[in-house]
Design goal:
439 residues; mainly alpha; Growth Hormone, Chain: A; 16 helices; 2 strands; 2% strand; globular
Length: 439
């Protein structure tokens, strides 16, 4: 097989193309079709299911499973990063998690409340496969691109992922709304459910098939000629410990990280549960209207998020990163209050547009602010590994709190309303970040 030199256009494009392959998971499974499908399984007003020896509300259950998956991912990330930096064939690991994720998506076709444990395992493994493959995908970047190429090719990957995932989602939407055109039979409700199940298969196939081009071009990895030992296996955790010790000595960085940990916890939680909230708490008028409305809402969020990222970038240039983050957190806090009263499709669309504006902005700005606050170091990988692990642990805490409130009170509205506390605390902590230097 031909080996392409570092920085070559073909190698960079092949790496970026993996975003085209795997982004369909985040849009169709995590954000759109699966939440709609999962909610439709509960046909009566009783939204509880007996699982793990107790009765759990359906949305609380999925919150807890998601939290557990991210807990596993938070543990695996530094473990896998240590191996990725050392092993001679990281492509094998990337393929392994890709195939686990892709096959798990296909397995969701058989998701059933009668076989809830197996079904939840497919959902769980899909999360593990997606995030696990990203560890090795991201670790390839310094191997295949020079520093001056990395920002551009990362942005290209994001763009390809957005285009690919939207294309497949539009196809899936057509399958759900007009199943007869695709030869999907049954009553209106049965055909729609079949179409959603088939959409999970299309995601798995899309992910696995389109990733082959990436695997064909990417090198195996940088060989060290050494075996993976116990010391190497836990090297990622050692690096995180060293990074944390250094961060604690940097007042501005540690204070910013505290603020980030708190507000990111709420942001990521809302992004993960938004469709479940819309499916259960909004009066759409009918199943067909609900499916169309939710998918349109997610597409609106995706499109508006691009504009939000641009506007946030301009605002940060004029007012500074920290000040801009404070304003964005205030908007998020207001959205939590507004979300509590959302009942109609129009109100949900308004919320979706506002979420899109601040979603794209806060994610991009939070990471770039962290980057600007880093001390002079050659080991930025370890610092960002720490950042990613902190973000995932925040997701675990946020989802557990959200799911617990949802379970106890029986309403996702109360859980959404409670999240305003995290944004309020985040604002207070952001005000405490020293501003002796311009960020």
């Amino acid at each position: 097989m031909k080996t392409y030199p570092k920085g070559s256009k073909k190698l960079l494009n092949a790496w970026a193309f993996y975003d085209w392959a795997n982004s369909v998971y985040t849009l169709t499974i995590a954000s759109t079709i699966f939440p709609i499908f999962y909610g439709a399984l509960f046909l009566t007003d009783n939204k509880h299911i007996h699982v793990f020896g107790t009765d759990i509300k359906n949305t609380a259950l999925i919150s807890f499973i998601t939290a557990f998956a991210f807990l596993v991912i938070a543990f695996l990330s530094p473990l896998l990063s240590g191996v990725a930096d050392f092993i001679g064939n990281k492509k094998v690991f990337m393929k392994f998690f890709c195939y686990i994720g892709g096959l798990a998506c296909i397995g969701l076709n058989w998701f059933s409340l009668d076989y809830i444990y197996v079904s939840l395992s497919f959902y769980f493994l899909g999360l593990i496969g997606y995030w696990g493959s990203l560890v090795f995908y991201n670790s390839y970047l310094p191997d295949i691109a020079f520093p001056e190429q990395q920002d551009k090719i990362s942005a290209k990957g994001y763009s390809l992922g957005y285009i690919g995932s939207v294309l497949l989602l539009v196809l899936n939407l057509a399958m759900v709304m007009k199943p007869d055109l695709f030869g999907i039979t049954g009553t209106e409700g049965e055909a729609a459910m079949k179409a959603m199940r088939y959409s999970f298969i299309t995601v798995g196939i899309w992910w696995i098939v389109f990733s082959q081009y990436t695997y064909y071009i990417l090198p195996k990895g940088t060989k060290t000629g050494n075996k993976v030992t116990k010391s190497v296996l836990f090297n990622g955790f050692k690096e995180l410990k060293l990074v944390f010790a250094e961060i604690k000595e940097n007042t501005r960085l540690i204070r910013y990280l505290r603020a980030f940990f708190v507000f990111s916890m709420a942001v990521q939680t809302i992004m993960l549960v938004a469709t479940y909230f819309g499916e259960q708490e909004v009066d759409w008028g009918g199943k067909q209207e609900k499916t169309m409305g939710l998918i349109v809402s997610i597409l609106v969020i995706q499109v508006v998020a691009i504009l939000g990222a641009y506007l946030t970038s301009r605002a940060s240039e004029k007012f500074g990163n920290i000040n801009t983050l404070i304003v964005i957190n205030f908007i998020w806090m207001c959205l939590c209050f507004y979300g509590y009263f959302v009942k109609t499709p129009t109100q949900f669309y308004i919320t979706a547009m506002c979420v899109g504006l601040v979603m794209g902005g806060i994610q991009a700005l939070a990471r770039s602010t962290y980057s600007k606050l880093l001390p002079e170091t050659d080991d930025t990988t370890s610092y960002f590994s720490f950042f990613d692990v902190a973000e995932k642990i925040g997701i675990v805490i946020g989802m557990v709190i959200y799911g617990t409130i949802d379970q106890i009170t029986g309403s996702m509205r109360n859980a959404i309303l409670f999240l305003f506390v995290f944004f309020l605390v985040g604002i207070i902590l952001l005000f405490k970040v020293p501003k002796e230097d311009k960020i």
